[in-house]
Design brief:
The chain is α+β, with helices and mostly antiparallel strands. The protein is built from nine helices and nine strands. It is globular. The two termini are 28 Å apart.
Length: 249
């Protein structure tokens, strides 16, 4: 349990599972930003340079996995949903000796844990980042002005690009249209604000929506459920602190 922490860019030889019990964590790699709400975890494959940050009071668990130990582990970074069974397994394994014997109860416990990680559903909590310098400046502008309702043509002009060029590079580098990329950014910003205790209506206005209903519709289409339901399923007995996105350099 730590308050206001930041881990500089580094690399692990093993895969890393970073699980948030409470608080919102952010993990940054060159290709994107992954948000980790409470009761979710981010998977970071071995050899991937990354940094992480949590603001406010956070509680998290970190699990290192030799990827030869289990088939089917994700090959890319992703945020996964942590089921009640996976959560309890994570709590349990922190108390065992890392040098457990093969074919032991501890070995069977770890095997079940790995099976649960492989089977865990992936959450849409990722903002892919382009490598193009102009689009990275655009991302910084969108983060600073999320309520700005400029057209895609106007946004392209602000970074000295044509709309067609912007769309082509975005599709090539992040696999999304400009509209979908901006909506994904809104989902990440919304989760941070909602987890910090802001109301749905306040977040809707901060992100430029005319009313709460249109924001809820967007959120449901992207995440699969309305924000109130999503947060209730991850509700903890302590307040979720807010975190801040910082673009990787």
């Amino acid at each position: 349990m730590t308050k206001d922490w930041e881990k500089a860019s580094h690399v692990h030889h093993k895969g890393q599972l970073l699980y948030s019990v409470r608080g919102v964590l952010n993990c940054y790699i060159n290709r994107g930003i992954w948000i980790v709400p409470p009761q979710c975890a981010v998977w970071i494959p071995p050899g991937v340079e990354h940094s992480a940050k949590g603001m406010g009071e956070t509680e998290c668990y970190c699990l290192f996995i030799d990827t030869v130990a289990a088939a089917g582990l994700p090959v890319d970074c992703c945020t996964i949903s942590v089921s009640p069974l996976l959560r309890e397994l994570l709590f349990k394994v922190v108390g065992i000796n890392p040098l457990y014997a093969e074919e032991s109860p501890e070995s069977r416990l770890v095997g079940t844990l790995l099976d649960e990680i492989v089977a865990a559903p992936v959450e849409a909590m990722h903002l892919p980042m382009p490598t193009d310098a102009r689009l990275r400046r655009l991302a910084a502008m969108l983060l600073a002005e999320p309520a700005e309702k400029l057209s895609s043509h106007a946004w392209a002009q602000r970074v000295a690009m044509s709309e067609r060029t912007m769309s082509r590079i975005l599709l090539r580098e992040v696999g999304m249209s400009f509209g979908r990329w901006r909506r994904q950014l809104h989902i990440i910003l919304a989760l941070q604000r909602l987890s910090g205790g802001q109301s749905v209506q306040a977040v809707a206005f901060e992100l430029g929506y005319e009313d709460a209903s249109s924001f809820v519709t967007m959120f449901r289409k992207a995440v699969g459920k309305p924000p109130a339901t999503y947060l209730q399923e991850r509700k903890h007995d302590l307040h979720f602190p807010v975190s801040t996105i910082i673009l990787p350099q």
